[in-house]
Amino acid sequence: MYPPRRKSTVPHLAPHIDHLGASGIREIVNLVLASDRDIARLEVGEPGFPTPDHIVEAAVRAARSGIGYTHSAGMQALREAIAESVERRYGTAVPFDRVIVCQGAGQGISAVLSAVLSTGDEVLVPDPSWPNYAMLTVLHGARPVFYGLRPENGFAPDLAELESLVTERTRVIILNSPGNPTGAVLPRDVIGKIVAFAADRGILVISDEVYDELIFDGEPADAAGFGTDNVVSAFSFSKTYAMTGWRVGYVIAPEWLAPTLVHVQEPLLSCISGVSQMAAIAALQGPQAPVAAMRDAYRAHRDLAVSLLEPTIPVVRPEGAFYLMIPLAPGVDSRTAALELVEYGVAVAPGSAFGQVAADHVRISLASGTDVLRTGIERFLTWHDVTEAGLRPAIAASTAVH
């Protein structure tokens, strides 16, 4: 006899999915894409340059020659090229088998979290920061605990606050320098203190360094250079080489963790596109002049944006990446402001998309063309002047719909 059939029911979602949240940036992007207005787009963090020709040509050659599956950790030739590049940039010798090639830095960070987190664990996440840190934490059944990066402190962490948030469930601290959305470059001594503090407590540090070659002032984070066994550094080809669509990044992991990350990647994606990996080798071994040219352009855009804004609005001058945070009047809700700014012909990312600390800021991208950047800031200032002049009701946070 077979047991009686159960009444048919709809499968349920995992409980933590309810806490995943949605992208506040994507809301603006979708609004812009649906609009027929002339809109200066400053909301998306994407390089305003094409991928350099020698990288594209390497990919074409690879595709034409035929290329199949590769090692789950990436081609050995690429891993060796990455190790050589890291040693050249930072003077840190890294064996190639501690390099794991990922489908962008975000997937690499996800693999690390898969390897070290259990349900109910905690991850210290900067606020403001790239929203995917918190989203990935939730996806792994853990809880994000936020530490503040406040504008009055140059968007740098307060070490005492960070330490006070550590509990017996804390497994990971996430650092990001240069920072998204702030453009802040953390001082090396601050990074060293956080790494040492975490090492003393058996906490893993994930150091997101995807903007490491887009620094205007200050030094790269190089968190792994402190010589401890508790740092995973994440990098990407997307921003440095204008390769956002190629989806190649990498993590450098301690010896005890690297083999596990390779195993985690096997069921997730088998391997990264071989064509993209050949392009990444060309990026590392080919001319680096395009990187310097892009960095110089972003620095010029930073200086232009600050010069246009500062007579009216004091800003924290970004030291790297290609973002700038603009403060609104206290209590103004950045989401509502960003929605309204689209009507003024400029798209910005609301600060609330990155956390609560900068919920009364908006982020602009400095990676757009010079004319687009100038036009967008001028339109923003027009909106700002109208608001300040009281010609329409203020946008109060209490009226915002979240």
TrEMBL record:
<keyword id="KW-0663">Pyridoxal phosphate</keyword>
<protein>
    <recommendedName>
        <fullName>Aminotransferase</fullName>
        <ecNumber>2.6.1.-</ecNumber>
    </recommendedName>
</protein>
<dbReference type="GO" id="GO:0008483">
    <property type="term" value="F:transaminase activity"/>
</dbReference>
<dbReference type="Pfam" id="PF00155">
    <property type="entry name" value="Aminotran_1_2"/>
</dbReference>
<dbReference type="GO" id="GO:0030170">
    <property type="term" value="F:pyridoxal phosphate binding"/>
</dbReference>
<dbReference type="InterPro" id="IPR015424">
    <property type="entry name" value="PyrdxlP-dep_Trfase"/>
</dbReference>
<keyword id="KW-0032">Aminotransferase</keyword>
<comment type="similarity">
    <text>Belongs to the class-I pyridoxal-phosphate-dependent aminotransferase family.</text>
</comment>
<feature type="domain" description="Aminotransferase class I/classII large">
    <location>
        <begin position="38"/>
        <end position="371"/>
    </location>
</feature>
<dbReference type="InterPro" id="IPR004838">
    <property type="entry name" value="NHTrfase_class1_PyrdxlP-BS"/>
</dbReference>
<dbReference type="InterPro" id="IPR015421">
    <property type="entry name" value="PyrdxlP-dep_Trfase_major"/>
</dbReference>
<dbReference type="InterPro" id="IPR015422">
    <property type="entry name" value="PyrdxlP-dep_Trfase_small"/>
</dbReference>
<dbReference type="GO" id="GO:0006520">
    <property type="term" value="P:amino acid metabolic process"/>
</dbReference>
<keyword id="KW-0808">Transferase</keyword>
<dbReference type="InterPro" id="IPR004839">
    <property type="entry name" value="Aminotransferase_I/II_large"/>
</dbReference>
<dbReference type="InterPro" id="IPR050596">
    <property type="entry name" value="AspAT/PAT-like"/>
</dbReference>
